[in-house]
Fold this protein.
Amino acid sequence: MARKRFSDLDRILEALRLGNVDPNTLPQNLDFVKYAKFKQGDGPERNITRPDLGDSLDVGIIAFGLPDTDASAKVQVNWNTRAKTFYDGLANNALFGIETTTLTDYNENITFVPAKVSLQAKGQSETETSKITGRKYKKNASPSYTIPLGQTATVKYFQEAVQGLLDSTIGAGYHISAEPEDWRRN
């Protein structure tokens, strides 16, 4: 399981809280004191600029673990043109199991959240300083793209699909993180 961001500082703040220690009484140049101020809303202002995702478009995928002949397994999901343009440039894009042209057999299902894969090019990191704690950290400078993932004619399960991506040229050139599909209650 991935470690939560700032989990080490959260543990320190929890220990201070249990010991009834006010972080404001401690030296102000400590990382966890700066983080405590940020959590209280007294830290530096952060402006996050999100990339333009473009227009949205519908694509079709087949849910994992269900027969591809089952009509409820064929689901229409929403996607953005920025990620679609990136996807079109990938050499092995058939591994994602996405149908982009004929969507007549695909249903809209608001309770279905598709499996997703996030790709980010390897080897383009830069050192930055945290505005919250002042710590130096390495940040991947390349953009990230999220692509829906569905079963293909040969791959029927999520773990197999992710392993196929990792073993392909996509896995060699990109950092890959995957999230399984989910069926929510209405």
In short: The beta strands are 56-62, 74-80, 107-108, 112-113, 115-121, 125-129, 136-140, 144-149, 174-179, 182-183. Residues 75 and 107 are 5 Å apart (CA to CA).
